[in-house]
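Contributing new records

If you add data, match the layout below exactly. Sequence lines come first and carry their own label; structure lines follow with theirs. Keep one chain per record. Anything else will be rejected by the validation script.
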Amino acid sequence: MRTKLWLFFVACATGVGACATATVIDTGPEGGGSDASSSNDGSSSDGKPGNDATTCTAPEVKCATDAGYACVDTKTDIAHCGQCATQCTVADAGSLAPGPNNPDSGIAYDGGSGWSLGSPACDAGSCAIGCPSGMTQCADGICYDTANFHDHCGDCNTACAQDTEWCNSGHCCGLGTLYCGSACVDPMYDNNNCGACGVVCSGGTPYCAKGACTAACVPSGSRQAFNTLSSHTTSGCWSGNPCAQGTYTWVSTNGASFINANEYTVCGGTTACVGHVGITTYEQSANCQGSWDVYCDTTKVGTIDTTGKACQGDAMTNGCSIAFSKPLTCTGIKLVGLTGSVGACCGSTGLHSMVTAVSAW
């Protein structure tokens, strides 16, 4: 009688971890032992299950698969995680495709790589999700780009305001702004982050305007204090100070009447960078309307025509305004009367126009 030693390598089923070598010993007498040998998928060569012939070496265990029995490491195998019957999967995001789409209904997508379902993983016998680089798994089992994702900004639990904020570099910033260094800034007008973070305006173009460095100054965007009636040649029933306020108020101390061509009013009292001038006029759109040339000091910056309009409310928002071709630093805002509308205004037969408030911003 002699002993035969047979060595077999048991291969893993597709998708599982590597398996160790198994040893099978045939101790039957020569010619008297079984001719059947164990195959590498755990079944015998004659097609019958080979359960007893498959031996696994720790930490691997024997699990049944579609291809038969195989040796698997349940600490790392996604098809047999923790135990043979547990298979790891990813979350269900419905019909949405990963990327620039949002699985959270009603929340706007911002930028970056969006989201991903990730990849199933088995870690120390427990199912997990492997997120792509730069993404974080949140409680819903989905991986998010928290540097840019609106509803998970900076971390899984921070959502930016729905209509007024977006997520930028992991921080909720006002729409149109960028998070640069330590704060949200407006890249259209920030001298140290002009058009993009870190772009500094200097030398002959020290100002940032509309995202580009320029030699022109930059308006603050708020009404500037050109509140003093510095000089005027206006004449008529009302010779008040329209410079003193920025909103429509129907009192004689505010209104300035223009009843002759080329009469003017100058608003001063400050020096500021401005890019807009707006006015309010008489309370009825058919009366005392007209057109005015507008000057920043001695530079003409445009013409305001209010014919057929009712220029009430705020001079900055009522539509009776102009925007300069480029912002300028002004010490005075001058309005020169050009034309007037038909209708009674101070009982004059002249221009028939009136300004009741002036704003520069």
